[in-house]
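FYI - complex with fructose -6-phosphate, inputs then prediction.
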Amino acid sequence: MKITVSLIKADIGSVAGHVRVHPKTIEAAKRKLEEAKKEGLIIDYYVFNAGDDLQLLMTHSKGIDNSDIHGLAWETFKEATKIAKELKLYAAGQDLLKDAFSGNIKGMGPGVAEMEFEERKAEPIAVFAADKTEPGAFNFPVFKIFADPFNTAGLIIDPRMHKGFKFIIMDVVEGKEIELSAPEEMYDILALIGHTGRYVIKYVYSKDPEIGIAATVSTQKLALICGEYRGKDDPVCIIRAQHGLPAMGEILEAFCHAHLVKGWMRGSHHGPLMPVPLKYSQCTRFDGPPRVVGLGFNICEGRLIGPIDLFDDPAFDHVRQKAMFISDYIRSMGPFEPHMMTPEELEYTTLPKILEELKDKWRKSK
Ligand code: F6R
Ligand code: MG
Ligand code: MG
């Protein structure tokens, strides 16, 4: 049975600043998706939040880029926005950049990660959603999961993983993509994906054709859509696990580094990515630090069995502590690079307006 998993997210407004989605907007989204489930458009759904982003996880049999599914997500975000506006939530409707839906939600503001696969005898998946960061934030963990044998023992030991994985990497500035294979082209992959603002891992495929798709990440960059900073392009990611794919523990291992990502405070700072359970899925200190939630499910004829709140575990306490140690250190640099991002990276923020005001004060240096 072919199943599609779609994770579509948008910031449609939040409470107390860009902190957390309001429970009433989550309820509105659930009502809408429940109707769609009853009508048979989707098989199942799970609604949750990553900080100020409303997350719609849906399963169905319509394939990726399906206009009915994207339309449903769009309508759901609009319903939730209505509530956000009634409650005068902060930045209500922020990510809905267009007025009318035109068949595909990509390019309209929301972020999208979708994959279609033949459901295996047992089909464990993990979905990740990050706040106050950008799609390239997943490059580091996804590379480690599928290409670093120091992270993933299965690359050495499991015959179905030993040949490695294929990576589709997108150049988000020029809108083109490249396919590279690990381990053979590992250095080429790394030559690109270390530059997280430009090159983003979009898909990972198993080299075993029976398995096919292994991972996908949303690659939408809001600033490139609307020409200015509108919150960050907080990304989502779906990864299939086990039986010829990385074990769930190998997937989670890659989130133990509190690696530095772009997008903290005003989309303008680097900071550590902190893995948190849903109860801590809210951005507070300096609007952060950037956070990621992870939910584990098994799929049963399209039904979502779960979730397991994957980072709700003392095993991640010390990662959170490490993230806060790094936060203290890097925050002490205030507006200095590399805590603050480079002027080129801040091009889409409000910095150019400040620089404009200084324009006439410059004089030729002697
Ligand atoms: C939003 C974000 C925040 C805001 C900041 C200023 O996702 O990253 O750090 O950029 O709170 O927000 P405004 O300009 O709405 O006051
Ligand atoms: Mg926001
Ligand atoms: Mg957000």
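The chain has a mean pLDDT of 95. Residues 11, 51-53, 131, 231-232, 234 surround magnesium ion (ligand 3) (CB under 6 Å).
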